[in-house]
Amino acid sequence: MSLRDILERTEQYTVEIINGRNRNRLDRCYRVFLFLLSRAYRNVVQLRLTLFDNLLLRQHVLGCFVVSVGNLTVGGTGKTPVVELLSRTLAGRGRRVAILSRGYRSKPRPFWERLRARLLNEQDGVPPKVVSDGRGVLLDSSQAGDEPYMLARNLVARNGSMGVAVVVDKDRVKGGKYAINHFQADTLILDDGFQYLRLRPWINILLVDSTNPFHNHEALPCGLLREPIKNLRRADYIFLTKSNGGTHLRHLRRFFRRCNPRAEIIECNHEPCYLQHVLTDERQELAVLSGRRVAAISAIAVPESFENYLTALGGEIVYRKRFVDHHRYHERELLDFCAEAVRQGAEYLVTTEKDAVRLPPLPVDIPPFYFLRVEIKILSGLDAFHKCITRICLS
């Protein structure tokens, strides 16, 4: 068993524990251990925030408008479509937009390149990775990371429209300076930036999954919270994603109003648009799944939401395969999935757009393989969204 397999199995076991698994004494002991780590982590996070609030740690200010988009929890809020919508709208209004990402689980720069920069004491060190310059995609998903590659591919210039640059670096202050100097960016979108306090945002956008806002209310690693819930007071706009009009939304709104009276609340939903072949630009209407036998494969934080889409579209899921979030597929895994899907009589193979960028070469003689394209739709608070866009464009 490889180290990657061990780490993924440990991650999966931890997820099961924090989701309530309690089969034996080992499970209970491990949960107590996670709880103790969670308390320590929460205190460290809050101390760090206090240091920034009291100017004991420095926040950098760059010479352009910075918009932070992030979560209180780990994954599952549907952040990437919101970043895409925001970037496309701003670019359409004439802003020079660059997205700054840390490139989670992307390949680091070659060791020799990093060593050379350090030995030569180069002022800026190793430059950030440019996933897209706005005109074309320059890196693949393994080098860039899943979400940056998706954003770069969907936001390149088309039909005379202005494209969006995508820059990856753990040091997003450095990434922001690079985007300003090389792409003349006047608007920086800080992807997954709610906890990135070194770069001061002009607008803080917080995403909350309305179907599971704060999981079990515990911080990592005993829960999914990255920081205490009370810190949502930093948000200027709160996007309630996966909204379905349920009565629980009224309670959520009241809770947010008590914690943060100044924040604008925007309800939105992620809606399937079409199916696209994982290898080509061929698209199919969603209705093609109605009454069909479907095999689903995914490695995302909340696979149930993806599978529920397929069921709602009339598909019958005859086989499903789930991996941990951001899993990078091996060829053997894909072969096994396709073989089992065929044995179960699947007529279509379907995955998510994020998973599609991580697939190895496809085997031959398999059913049609598509990814489900999902886009954000604002259900309420559209005026607040447009005011946010105007506020940025008039800066």
Describe this structure in words.
By secondary structure, the protein is of the alpha/beta class. It folds into 3 domains: 3-53, no CATH class; 65-262, Rossmann fold, CATH 3.40.50; 271-375, Rossmann fold (3-Layer(aba) Sandwich), CATH 3.40.50. Helix content is 36%, strand content 21%. It is built from 12 helices and 13 strands. The chain has helices at residues 3-18, 25-53, 79-92, 111-119, 141-144, 146-154, 172-183, 248-259, 303-312, 331-343, 353-356, 382-393, and strands spanning 65-71, 97-101, 129-133, 165-168, 187-191, 203-209, 237-241, 264-277, 283-284, 293-298, 316-322, 348-352, 369-380. Strands 1, 2, 3, 4, 5, 6, 7, 8, 9, 10, 11, 12 and 13 form a 13-stranded mixed beta sheet that branches. Helix 9 links the parallel strand 10 and strand 11. The longest helix is centred in the N-terminal third of the chain and has 29 residues, at 25-53. The radius of gyration is 22 Å and the shape is globular. The N and C termini lie far apart (54 Å). The mean pLDDT is 92. Belongs to the LpxK family. It catalyses: a lipid A disaccharide + ATP = a lipid IVA + ADP + H(+). Its EC number is 2.7.1.130. One of its GO terms (cellular component) is plasma membrane. Pfam families: LpxK.
Brief summary of the model shown:
With 395 residues, this protein is of the alpha/beta class. It folds into 3 domains: 3-53, no CATH class; 65-262, Rossmann fold; 271-375, Rossmann fold (3-Layer(aba) Sandwich), CATH 3.40.50. Helix content is 36%, strand content 21%.
Largest sheet: 13 strands, mixed
Radius of gyration: 22 Å
**Number of domain units:** 3
**In whole angstroms, how far apart are the ends?**
54 Å
GO molecular function: ATP binding; lipid-A 4'-kinase activity
Protein name: Tetraacyldisaccharide 4'-kinase
Binding site for ATP: 73-80
Catalytic activity: a lipid A disaccharide + ATP = a lipid IVA + ADP + H(+)
